[in-house]
Each structure stands twice: as C-alpha cells, then as structure tokens.
Amino acid sequence: MGHAVGRRKGSIGIALITGVVLVGASACGGGGSDKASGGDAKASGKASVSASPSPTKPAGPPMLLDTITPQTGTTVGVAMPISVIFTNPVAAKARATVEKHMKVSASQPVAGAWHWMGDKRADWRPKAYWPSGTTVKIDADMKGVSNGNGRYGVHGYTHTFKIGDDVRADVSVTGHTMKVTRNGSPVRTLSINAGSAEYPTWNGTMAVIDKQEKVHMTSCSVGISCDKGSPNYYDLTLPWDVHLTQSGTYVHYSTGDPNPGSGSARGSHGCVHLSMADAKWFYGQVKQGDPITITGSPRAKAPADNGYADFNLGWDQWLAGSASGESTTATL
C-alpha cells in the first residue's frame, strides 16, 4: 500500500549537493508503466570552471549530471548499482565515449558493465553481487565530453562509497515467509503477507532504494481508488517502510494486516507486510542496496529501472544495453 507524498532526504541543502531522491509514482502494486523517474537533486562533485572554453573543445550548452547514486561516503548493500542520471538525453552514438569517461575503480577487481535505461540514465552493476568490504569509486570526468546532441560536459564528478555487510531477504509469496541472512548466515525467518490476486507483488530482486520511519500512503494518488466507500480505499501513514520500487512497493507494517502469515491470508495492494515488531526489526537490519528477492507471485519481475532492480536482467540482457561492454574495475 502506499504512495510517498512529498518525500525528501535530509535537509534540502545537503540534498542539493549530494542527495538523490527517487520520486515514487505509484502505490503498492499500482498500475501504469512502472517506469523510473529521475532524481530531483544534483550530483555532487568537484566542479571545475575555466575562464574560457578550450580551443580544442566546441563551445555549447553544458552536459550536466542530475544525480549520482550512491551518495559519496555512504555504505550500501551488495546489489547496489552505480546509477547516473543525466539532465538531458545522451544520443546512442555518444554513449560508448560517455561510458569510458565514467571510470569505476574498486579495492578489489570486480567485473561489471554500464547499461542504459532510456537516454538519461546509465547504471553500472557488477556481473554478480559486490563483495562485502569493497571500496568503490566513480570518476565521471565529463569535461569536454559530448552527449551527441550538441551538449558538452563542463565538470568532473567523484563519488566514493563502501559495500557493507551482505544482507539479503528472500520472500516466498506462497509460503508467507521472509528469510533474512547476513554474510551467508541465517538470521531470522519472518511471517509475511504479499499482494492479493488483484494487486500482486512484483517478483524478482529489488535493491533497497531507501527507508523511512513513516510514509503517508493513499490509494487515490495511484489510481487504485478515490472512493472512500471502496474496500480498496486507503489513506494511511504507516511505519517502518523499506522502499523497493519507484512504483510504490514497500516492506512495512500495515494496520489493515497486523498479524501477517499463512493464517491470516490478507493480501496487500502489492507491498510485503510484516508484524509491527518484525517491521521495526527488519527496518533496523537493512540499508540501501540490500537485495530483497521475491518469488512465487503471479506478477512478472519488476522492470530493471523501477528503482534499482538491475539484477532482474540476465547478464546477456544487461550487456545488450551497454555501449562499451564488460570491463573490470580499475584498482583503487
């Protein structure tokens, strides 16, 4: 259930420098294209402004980056991609050069590749999950680089982040369970309810986008129901919300399903429901980029760009969206 209303991360001053806010466009299980929208913050980085354009570079309007995720200095999960959103479209003919100017380095060698999701978003993900403890750096040196549409980069951007503990959650829709592991060892198995037949939960692996202690969720905002007399109408502020898709999938507690599990069999509008105690506990376990994998739902896998569901594409599919192909990280 739910639509996050007017969400922002941190103070606006911080957000404008280093933040990224993925703006949800739909509720738990809501319809629509489930396409990702861009961030509303600016990428951080070292801006270098020269007094006049270099004579060897054509002058033109700037090519700018809207956001780079993860934020610099953060610790993220093993399924977190590097996601770069451009302010303006990047032409197909320019993508190989742009990719080569977005250098990924790591403290241990990791094979991966860029993949374009439309013409404004490029994600770099490892072929398999990141090894825990890896330090990762992206150097997006865009100075003088063309986007193929008459714009040229004017800045370099650098983000450095770390891969934390390998925390995973595996949800069985039919079994009404969520198994949580940390660094390969089982931690707890929780009772859950997922989506109903009418509003099934997405299948597949979704890296956690973010989490909030409270989220205001409404059925009307996402086209499920605006009729207060409908059994599918809701207007609730619910606690312990772990955000899985931009279309509005969360793992959280719902007042309409306080004791989830096979005994209650209450279907959600697409979210994964936990009891209040379990939702609070799970909230404390997970971080951005931890993979939550859902199986047993009648729905397809979440589209790769619906949040950070990059691992829902097989490696061949991933490489098909890359202009420069597989590479191994530079040494950090």
TrEMBL record:
Q: CDD domains per the record?
A: LDT_IgD_like_2 (cd13432), YkuD_like (cd16913)
InterPro entries in UniProt: Big_10, LD-transpeptidase, LD_TPept_cat_dom, Transpep_catalytic_dom
Q: Which SUPFAM superfamilies match?
A: L,D-transpeptidase catalytic domain-like (SSF141523)
| Keyword Hydrolase tagged | no
Keyword flag Cell wall biogenesis/degradation = yes
Active site, per annotation: H252 (proton donor/acceptor), C271 (nucleophile)
Q: Where is the composition biased (Low complexity)?
A: 34-52
The scientific name of the source species is Streptomyces pseudovenezuelae
Gene3D superfamilies in alphabetical order = 2.60.40.3710, L,D-transpeptidase catalytic domain-like (2.40.440.10)
Pathway field of the UniProt record reads: Cell wall biogenesis; peptidoglycan biosynthesis
Region of interest: Disordered: 32-63
PANTHER family per UniProt:
L,D-TRANSPEPTIDASE, L,D-TRANSPEPTIDASE YCIB-RELATED
Outline the extent of the L,D-TPase catalytic domain.
167-295
Its recorded name reads Lipoprotein-anchoring transpeptidase ErfK/SrfK
Keywords from the named record: Acyltransferase, Cell shape, Cell wall biogenesis/degradation, Lipoprotein, Peptidoglycan synthesis, Transferase
Pfam families annotated for this entry?
Big_10, YkuD
